[in-house]
Amino acid sequence: MSGALAVDFALVIAGFIGMEAVTYVVHRFVMHGPLESLHRSHHRNAAAAFADKRPEPNDVFPAAFSLVVLAALWVGFNLSGFAWLVPLFVGVTVYGIVYTAIHDGIIHGRVAWMKRIDTRWTRSLTLAHRAHHRANSEPYGMLLPSLTMHERSVRNQVARSGSRPSQVPVDQ
Ligand SMILES: [Zn+2]
Ligand SMILES: [Zn+2]
Predict the structure, then answer these.
(1) Minimum-distance ligand to the CA of 109?
(2) Separation of 15 CA from ligand 2 center, angstroms?
């Protein structure tokens, strides 16, 4: 791998990993902070089938995140000295795709074939996110909820829940 390619690859990885931290901070301090009234619609309606869903206030957030990514990519492609933004935001975009697949497809079951995915990992992510929906508290992150949530409490929930979590609608 050439030096430049290695730097680009490192930037993609940094964008991906950094987004888990950004997600945590934005979700905790903005979406559950001053803009919580917009985010509440997601906590209320999360179980609704995707096809039945109409736009809701929480959609403001993914729309705003997309605009930030588009703006950063435009700057990266068009202004000299900012080309590094392109691989960084490729990593951010890949994170967004993975986040959407896990959060919307698997956890909230909005994509039929995705909601049937049932592994130890997806089960623990589902239980962790359901705990967030229920209590409006930790974990605010998505891919590594155990960083801010006691592993034990996730394991206890797994033990208590006899059924597959993906079959239980996440409404709360
Ligand atoms: Zn959710
Ligand atoms: Zn939330």
Answers:
(1) 1
(2) 22
Instruction: Give the span between the Cα atoms of 149 and 134, in whole angstroms.
Output: 14
Q: What is the pLDDT of residue 164?
A: 42
Q: Give 135-157 pLDDT, tens digit per residue.
A: 999 999 988 887 777 655 555 55
User: Which ligand gives the minimal distance to the CA of 33?
Assistant: 2
What is the CA(64)–ligand 1 centre distance, in A?
A: 17
Three-state DSSP string of 8-32: HHHHHHHHHHHHHHHHHHHHHHHHC
- Could you tell me the pTM of the whole model? 0.83
> Distance between alpha carbon 119 and the CA centroid of its chain, in Å?
18
Residue 165 confidence (pLDDT) above 50 = no
Tell me how far apart the 2 most distant CA atoms of the chain are, in Å: 57
**What tokens appear for 98 in the block?**
């993975």
